[in-house]
Amino acid sequence: MDRSDVTLERMRSFVRVAERGSLSAVARELGVGQSTITRHLRELEDALGVPLLSRTTRRVTMTDEGGRYYADCIQILRLVEQAGDEARGTRGAPAGTIRISCTAAFGVLHASRLIFAFQDCYPEIGVDLSLTDERVDLVREGVDIALRLGPLSDSSMKLRALGQCRRLLVAAPDYLAARGRPTIPQDLSGHEGIRMSNVAGSDTLILQGPDGARHVVPFGGRFRVDHGLAAREALAAGRGIGPTHQWLVGDLLADGRLEAILPDYALPFVPLSLLIVPERAGIARVRLLVDFLAQQISGIAGIEAPRP
């Protein structure tokens, strides 16, 4: 084996192809031609003397040798990046790019503002922010950390609980003037509901009364949507009543464009969490952003401290 052919650049190309399963996707991600990625892989396999990837017309997968080599490459690249962080730390401020995935509405209304403040503190750190309500494969997409709402099941990621999001029922004053204000949970069945199509069970509301009793109420309506900001607009436009996060409509409640409905009846809280790709958790700039977000998010109205 000619060790001079085993370069970090070729390792990175191999790792990303192994994670994404597509040469063309990695070429677009790295801003190079697909022929460059193909050459990196060929030269790396020639230098090692073993096939690392199995290619078909539809997908690229790792061979057994490739899987073992991938695990070693991840550790090597992590150590190289950490060494770079430490070297830069002796010179001054941390630098580099952090890739973040975030729930869309929370990203627009809150996370982007917090990231701006973080970059004001650390001007040498770049951020690539991707807003989506889909549960993406963080490793495959090259993401370092992700802000997510709701229960999580990906045990391969490091998880940091950020808080519990308070939810409430709201409607516009014009809607309530035209249709009446519900006074008990059962009244909701006669109203237009604004529902989230990407939230399981949105056709039913579960409310806890002031006496602790649990109320399960059918919840229907003519408008369903898969984006929190569109639901916010529908509520403000008087299209119906909807359950929503306080952080999503706090400003509309404050200026009177929305009003809280059945305030004595509580909706279940929703957890807000930070997922961290384990191989990225030790990188200084990632640690800085994780700690910054955890501290700042605790100050957003409607987000309570994580429950033990």
TrEMBL record:
It holds the Pfam family LysR_substrate. GO terms for molecular function: DNA binding; DNA-binding transcription factor activity. InterPro entries: LysR-type_TF_proteobact-type (IPR058163), LysR_HTH_N (IPR000847), LysR_subst-bd (IPR005119), WH-like_DNA-bd_sf (IPR036388), WH_DNA-bd_sf (IPR036390). Residues 6-63 form the HTH lysR-type domain. Keywords: DNA-binding, Transcription, Transcription regulation. SUPFAM superfamilies: Periplasmic binding protein-like II (SSF53850), Winged helix' DNA-binding domain (SSF46785). PANTHER family: HTH-TYPE TRANSCRIPTIONAL ACTIVATOR TTDR-RELATED, HTH-TYPE TRANSCRIPTIONAL REGULATOR. Belongs to the LysR transcriptional regulatory family. This is DNA-binding transcriptional LysR family regulator. It comes from Bosea psychrotolerans.
